[in-house]
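Researcher: Quick one. two chains, 319 residues in total.
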Amino acid sequence: MRIGLFVLGLIAAVYAAAQDASFTPEQAQRYQRLVGELRCLVCQNQSIADSNAPLAADLREQVRTQILAGHSDDQIRSYVTARYGDFVLYRPPFKPTTWLLWLGPFLLLALALTVAGIFVRRRTRAAPGGEPDREHLRRLLDEESR
Amino acid sequence: MRIRYLLPALVLVGLVLLFAFGLQHDPRQIPSPLIGKPAPAFTLRLLGEQTPYTQEQLRGRPLLVNFWASWCAGCLVEHPFLMELARRGVEIVGIDYKDTDTEALRWLARHGNPYRTIAADTEGRAGLDWGVYGVPETFVLDAQGIIVYKHIGPLDEEAWRTKIAPLLAGGAG
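Model:
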Protein backbone atom coordinates (compact mmCIF):
# COMPACT_ATOMS: atom_id res chain seq x y z
CA MET A 1 0.00 0.00 0.00
CA ARG A 2 2.69 2.44 1.07
CA ILE A 3 4.94 1.41 -1.80
CA GLY A 4 1.98 1.81 -4.15
CA LEU A 5 1.45 5.37 -2.93
CA PHE A 6 5.15 6.10 -3.28
CA VAL A 7 5.20 4.84 -6.86
CA LEU A 8 2.06 6.84 -7.59
CA GLY A 9 3.70 9.96 -6.18
CA LEU A 10 6.78 9.29 -8.27
CA ILE A 11 4.72 8.91 -11.42
CA ALA A 12 2.85 12.13 -10.59
CA ALA A 13 6.13 13.98 -10.05
CA VAL A 14 7.63 12.72 -13.30
CA TYR A 15 4.40 13.59 -15.10
CA ALA A 16 4.39 17.09 -13.63
CA ALA A 17 8.03 17.57 -14.59
CA ALA A 18 7.27 16.37 -18.12
CA GLN A 19 4.41 18.87 -18.33
CA ASP A 20 6.60 21.69 -17.12
CA ALA A 21 9.18 20.78 -19.71
CA SER A 22 6.98 22.23 -22.44
CA PHE A 23 7.16 25.69 -20.82
CA THR A 24 9.89 28.16 -21.62
CA PRO A 25 11.49 29.44 -18.38
CA GLU A 26 9.57 32.69 -18.80
CA GLN A 27 6.27 30.82 -19.23
CA ALA A 28 7.02 28.67 -16.19
CA GLN A 29 7.56 31.83 -14.17
CA ARG A 30 4.25 33.31 -15.35
CA TYR A 31 2.51 30.04 -14.54
CA GLN A 32 3.90 30.03 -11.00
CA ARG A 33 2.88 33.64 -10.44
CA LEU A 34 -0.64 33.16 -11.84
CA VAL A 35 -1.49 30.00 -9.93
CA GLY A 36 -0.12 31.69 -6.82
CA GLU A 37 -2.48 34.64 -7.09
CA LEU A 38 -5.67 32.75 -7.97
CA ARG A 39 -7.82 31.64 -5.10
CA CYS A 40 -9.22 28.14 -4.86
CA LEU A 41 -12.94 28.54 -4.26
CA VAL A 42 -13.41 25.18 -2.64
CA CYS A 43 -10.92 25.79 0.16
CA GLN A 44 -11.05 29.54 0.19
CA ASN A 45 -7.83 30.35 1.94
CA GLN A 46 -5.52 28.55 -0.42
CA SER A 47 -4.31 29.54 -3.82
CA ILE A 48 -4.88 27.10 -6.66
CA ALA A 49 -1.14 26.39 -6.52
CA ASP A 50 -1.45 25.08 -2.95
CA SER A 51 -4.78 23.33 -3.15
CA ASN A 52 -5.38 19.66 -3.81
CA ALA A 53 -9.04 20.20 -4.67
CA PRO A 54 -10.06 18.84 -8.08
CA LEU A 55 -11.33 22.28 -9.08
CA ALA A 56 -7.92 23.79 -8.36
CA ALA A 57 -6.33 21.12 -10.56
CA ASP A 58 -8.79 22.01 -13.35
CA LEU A 59 -7.94 25.69 -13.05
CA ARG A 60 -4.20 25.00 -13.01
CA GLU A 61 -4.67 22.97 -16.17
CA GLN A 62 -6.58 25.88 -17.72
CA VAL A 63 -3.81 28.33 -16.82
CA ARG A 64 -1.24 25.95 -18.27
CA THR A 65 -3.01 25.39 -21.58
CA GLN A 66 -3.82 29.08 -21.95
CA ILE A 67 -0.20 30.08 -21.37
CA LEU A 68 0.84 27.51 -23.98
CA ALA A 69 -1.83 28.90 -26.32
CA GLY A 70 -0.14 32.28 -26.04
CA HIS A 71 -2.75 34.08 -23.92
CA SER A 72 -1.58 37.05 -21.87
CA ASP A 73 -1.78 37.16 -18.07
CA ASP A 74 -4.66 39.61 -18.29
CA GLN A 75 -6.55 37.35 -20.68
CA ILE A 76 -6.13 34.43 -18.31
CA ARG A 77 -7.20 36.51 -15.31
CA SER A 78 -10.30 37.73 -17.09
CA TYR A 79 -11.07 34.16 -18.16
CA VAL A 80 -11.19 33.15 -14.52
CA THR A 81 -12.99 36.24 -13.23
CA ALA A 82 -15.64 35.97 -15.96
CA ARG A 83 -16.57 32.63 -14.40
CA TYR A 84 -15.85 33.03 -10.71
CA GLY A 85 -15.83 36.78 -10.12
CA ASP A 86 -13.18 39.07 -8.62
CA PHE A 87 -13.24 36.94 -5.49
CA VAL A 88 -10.78 34.49 -7.10
CA LEU A 89 -8.13 37.17 -7.34
CA TYR A 90 -5.90 37.49 -4.31
CA ARG A 91 -5.00 40.88 -5.80
CA PRO A 92 -8.42 42.34 -6.55
CA PRO A 93 -8.75 45.18 -9.09
CA PHE A 94 -9.23 48.77 -7.93
CA LYS A 95 -12.80 49.67 -8.85
CA PRO A 96 -15.89 51.17 -7.16
CA THR A 97 -16.94 47.93 -5.43
CA THR A 98 -13.45 47.39 -4.04
CA TRP A 99 -12.67 51.01 -3.08
CA LEU A 100 -13.50 50.32 0.54
CA LEU A 101 -11.31 47.22 0.50
CA TRP A 102 -8.29 49.09 -0.83
CA LEU A 103 -8.79 52.39 0.97
CA GLY A 104 -10.27 51.03 4.20
CA PRO A 105 -6.95 50.55 5.99
CA PHE A 106 -5.87 54.11 5.12
CA LEU A 107 -9.23 55.48 6.25
CA LEU A 108 -8.81 53.65 9.56
CA LEU A 109 -5.28 54.98 9.91
CA ALA A 110 -6.47 58.55 9.25
CA LEU A 111 -9.29 58.08 11.76
CA ALA A 112 -6.89 56.71 14.38
CA LEU A 113 -4.45 59.60 13.84
CA THR A 114 -7.25 62.16 14.09
CA VAL A 115 -8.56 60.67 17.31
CA ALA A 116 -5.04 60.45 18.74
CA GLY A 117 -4.39 64.06 17.71
CA ILE A 118 -7.55 65.28 19.44
CA PHE A 119 -6.65 63.42 22.63
CA VAL A 120 -3.09 64.71 22.70
CA ARG A 121 -4.18 68.28 22.03
CA ARG A 122 -6.79 68.14 24.77
CA ARG A 123 -4.26 66.62 27.21
CA THR A 124 -1.73 69.39 26.62
CA ARG A 125 -4.32 72.11 26.88
CA ALA A 126 -5.70 70.62 30.08
CA ALA A 127 -2.21 70.33 31.63
CA PRO A 128 -2.08 72.45 34.81
CA GLY A 129 -0.15 75.68 34.39
CA GLY A 130 0.62 75.92 38.13
CA GLU A 131 2.38 78.69 40.02
CA PRO A 132 5.86 77.10 40.07
CA ASP A 133 5.91 77.16 36.30
CA ARG A 134 5.02 80.84 36.15
CA GLU A 135 7.69 81.63 38.68
CA HIS A 136 10.22 79.80 36.58
CA LEU A 137 9.14 81.60 33.44
CA ARG A 138 9.29 85.01 35.07
CA ARG A 139 12.81 84.29 36.26
CA LEU A 140 13.83 83.23 32.76
CA LEU A 141 12.31 86.40 31.31
CA ASP A 142 14.09 88.52 33.87
CA GLU A 143 17.38 86.94 32.96
CA GLU A 144 16.70 87.63 29.32
CA SER A 145 15.88 91.32 29.79
CA ARG A 146 18.91 91.93 31.97
CA MET B 1 -22.73 64.43 28.95
CA ARG B 2 -19.29 64.57 27.47
CA ILE B 3 -18.48 62.87 24.22
CA ARG B 4 -15.74 60.92 25.98
CA TYR B 5 -18.36 58.84 27.77
CA LEU B 6 -20.46 58.48 24.67
CA LEU B 7 -17.60 57.26 22.53
CA PRO B 8 -17.30 53.66 23.87
CA ALA B 9 -21.04 53.25 23.49
CA LEU B 10 -20.85 54.47 19.89
CA VAL B 11 -17.95 52.12 19.15
CA LEU B 12 -19.93 49.23 20.66
CA VAL B 13 -22.98 50.04 18.52
CA GLY B 14 -20.74 50.23 15.47
CA LEU B 15 -19.19 46.85 16.20
CA VAL B 16 -22.59 45.25 16.81
CA LEU B 17 -23.82 46.56 13.47
CA LEU B 18 -20.65 45.37 11.74
CA PHE B 19 -20.95 41.89 13.21
CA ALA B 20 -24.69 41.72 12.58
CA PHE B 21 -23.93 42.36 8.94
CA GLY B 22 -20.71 40.37 8.69
CA LEU B 23 -21.70 37.22 10.54
CA GLN B 24 -24.87 36.77 8.51
CA HIS B 25 -22.77 36.84 5.42
CA ASP B 26 -21.67 33.34 4.41
CA PRO B 27 -18.21 33.52 2.85
CA ARG B 28 -19.04 30.40 0.85
CA GLN B 29 -21.79 32.24 -1.02
CA ILE B 30 -19.75 33.88 -3.72
CA PRO B 31 -21.80 36.11 -6.01
CA SER B 32 -21.68 34.78 -9.54
CA PRO B 33 -20.56 37.18 -12.26
CA LEU B 34 -22.86 35.27 -14.62
CA ILE B 35 -26.08 36.75 -13.24
CA GLY B 36 -27.84 38.68 -16.00
CA LYS B 37 -25.75 37.00 -18.68
CA PRO B 38 -26.72 34.31 -21.19
CA ALA B 39 -26.03 30.73 -20.13
CA PRO B 40 -22.43 29.86 -21.04
CA ALA B 41 -22.08 27.70 -24.11
CA PHE B 42 -21.45 23.99 -23.79
CA THR B 43 -21.65 20.89 -25.91
CA LEU B 44 -22.38 17.90 -23.76
CA ARG B 45 -24.16 14.65 -24.38
CA LEU B 46 -27.23 13.27 -22.68
CA LEU B 47 -26.52 11.03 -19.72
CA GLY B 48 -26.23 7.42 -20.82
CA GLU B 49 -26.48 8.38 -24.50
CA GLN B 50 -24.42 9.93 -27.27
CA THR B 51 -27.07 12.50 -28.26
CA PRO B 52 -25.49 15.97 -28.08
CA TYR B 53 -27.00 18.59 -25.79
CA THR B 54 -26.14 22.30 -25.93
CA GLN B 55 -27.12 25.49 -24.12
CA GLU B 56 -29.42 26.32 -27.07
CA GLN B 57 -31.82 23.71 -25.77
CA LEU B 58 -32.18 25.60 -22.49
CA ARG B 59 -34.04 28.45 -24.18
CA GLY B 60 -37.78 28.85 -24.62
CA ARG B 61 -39.10 28.53 -21.06
CA PRO B 62 -37.89 29.34 -17.56
CA LEU B 63 -36.14 26.44 -15.90
CA LEU B 64 -33.62 25.35 -13.33
CA VAL B 65 -30.19 24.04 -14.24
CA ASN B 66 -28.95 21.88 -11.40
CA PHE B 67 -25.34 20.72 -11.20
CA TRP B 68 -25.19 17.49 -9.24
CA ALA B 69 -23.29 14.24 -8.94
CA SER B 70 -23.86 10.80 -7.51
CA TRP B 71 -20.82 11.28 -5.25
CA CYS B 72 -22.14 14.51 -3.80
CA ALA B 73 -23.64 14.39 -0.30
CA GLY B 74 -25.39 17.75 -0.57
CA CYS B 75 -27.19 16.55 -3.68
CA LEU B 76 -28.78 13.75 -1.71
CA VAL B 77 -29.88 16.33 0.86
CA GLU B 78 -31.67 18.48 -1.73
CA HIS B 79 -32.92 15.54 -3.76
CA PRO B 80 -36.34 15.14 -2.06
CA PHE B 81 -37.00 18.83 -2.61
CA LEU B 82 -36.11 18.57 -6.30
CA MET B 83 -38.53 15.64 -6.55
CA GLU B 84 -41.18 17.86 -4.96
CA LEU B 85 -40.45 20.68 -7.44
CA ALA B 86 -40.72 18.22 -10.33
CA ARG B 87 -44.10 17.15 -8.97
CA ARG B 88 -45.15 20.80 -8.96
CA GLY B 89 -44.26 20.93 -12.65
CA VAL B 90 -40.97 22.85 -12.45
CA GLU B 91 -38.63 21.96 -15.27
CA ILE B 92 -35.21 20.97 -13.98
CA VAL B 93 -32.31 20.23 -16.25
CA GLY B 94 -29.62 18.22 -14.50
CA ILE B 95 -25.95 18.46 -15.33
CA ASP B 96 -24.12 15.46 -13.98
CA TYR B 97 -20.80 16.93 -12.87
CA LYS B 98 -17.59 14.86 -12.91
CA ASP B 99 -19.40 11.61 -12.61
CA THR B 100 -19.67 8.33 -14.48
CA ASP B 101 -22.87 7.48 -16.34
CA THR B 102 -23.14 4.14 -14.57
CA GLU B 103 -22.93 5.63 -11.09
CA ALA B 104 -25.28 8.49 -11.96
CA LEU B 105 -27.91 6.22 -13.50
CA ARG B 106 -27.72 3.87 -10.53
CA TRP B 107 -28.15 6.84 -8.16
CA LEU B 108 -31.22 8.02 -10.07
CA ALA B 109 -32.72 4.54 -10.19
CA ARG B 110 -32.33 4.27 -6.45
CA HIS B 111 -33.54 7.72 -5.37
CA GLY B 112 -35.77 8.82 -8.24
CA ASN B 113 -35.27 11.21 -11.13
CA PRO B 114 -36.45 14.82 -10.77
CA TYR B 115 -34.87 15.92 -14.06
CA ARG B 116 -36.58 16.54 -17.38
CA THR B 117 -33.23 16.22 -19.12
CA ILE B 118 -29.76 15.26 -17.89
CA ALA B 119 -26.51 16.17 -19.58
CA ALA B 120 -23.26 14.48 -18.65
CA ASP B 121 -20.35 16.81 -17.83
CA THR B 122 -17.86 14.04 -17.19
CA GLU B 123 -14.78 16.27 -17.47
CA GLY B 124 -16.28 19.18 -15.57
CA ARG B 125 -15.66 21.57 -18.47
CA ALA B 126 -19.20 22.96 -18.48
CA GLY B 127 -18.98 23.29 -14.70
CA LEU B 128 -15.84 25.38 -15.11
CA ASP B 129 -17.50 27.65 -17.66
CA TRP B 130 -20.53 28.05 -15.43
CA GLY B 131 -18.36 28.94 -12.45
CA VAL B 132 -19.36 25.88 -10.46
CA TYR B 133 -17.11 25.30 -7.46
CA GLY B 134 -19.08 22.91 -5.31
CA VAL B 135 -22.08 20.82 -6.24
CA PRO B 136 -24.98 21.12 -5.77
CA GLU B 137 -25.42 24.47 -7.47
CA THR B 138 -28.63 25.57 -9.11
CA PHE B 139 -29.03 28.23 -11.77
CA VAL B 140 -32.36 29.86 -12.57
CA LEU B 141 -32.77 30.64 -16.26
CA ASP B 142 -35.47 32.73 -17.85
CA ALA B 143 -37.15 31.90 -21.16
CA GLN B 144 -34.41 33.73 -23.07
CA GLY B 145 -31.76 31.53 -21.53
CA ILE B 146 -30.44 34.34 -19.30
CA ILE B 147 -29.17 33.37 -15.85
CA VAL B 148 -31.25 35.30 -13.35
CA TYR B 149 -30.18 33.66 -10.10
CA LYS B 150 -27.71 31.18 -8.69
CA HIS B 151 -28.21 29.12 -5.58
CA ILE B 152 -25.16 27.53 -3.99
CA GLY B 153 -25.62 24.44 -1.87
CA PRO B 154 -28.71 22.28 -1.36
CA LEU B 155 -31.89 23.93 -2.57
CA ASP B 156 -34.73 24.08 -0.05
CA GLU B 157 -38.27 25.38 0.36
CA GLU B 158 -37.05 28.57 2.04
CA ALA B 159 -34.70 29.54 -0.80
CA TRP B 160 -37.32 28.53 -3.32
CA ARG B 161 -40.10 30.60 -1.77
CA THR B 162 -38.07 33.72 -1.02
CA LYS B 163 -35.66 33.87 -3.94
CA ILE B 164 -36.54 31.68 -6.88
CA ALA B 165 -40.33 31.42 -7.14
CA PRO B 166 -40.78 35.22 -7.42
CA LEU B 167 -38.22 35.32 -10.27
CA LEU B 168 -39.92 32.50 -12.16
CA ALA B 169 -43.35 34.03 -11.64
CA GLY B 170 -42.05 37.34 -13.01
CA GLY B 171 -40.39 35.67 -15.97
CA ALA B 172 -43.43 33.64 -16.94
CA GLY B 173 -45.88 36.51 -16.59
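Chain A has six helices and no strands.
Researcher: Thanks, that's what I needed.
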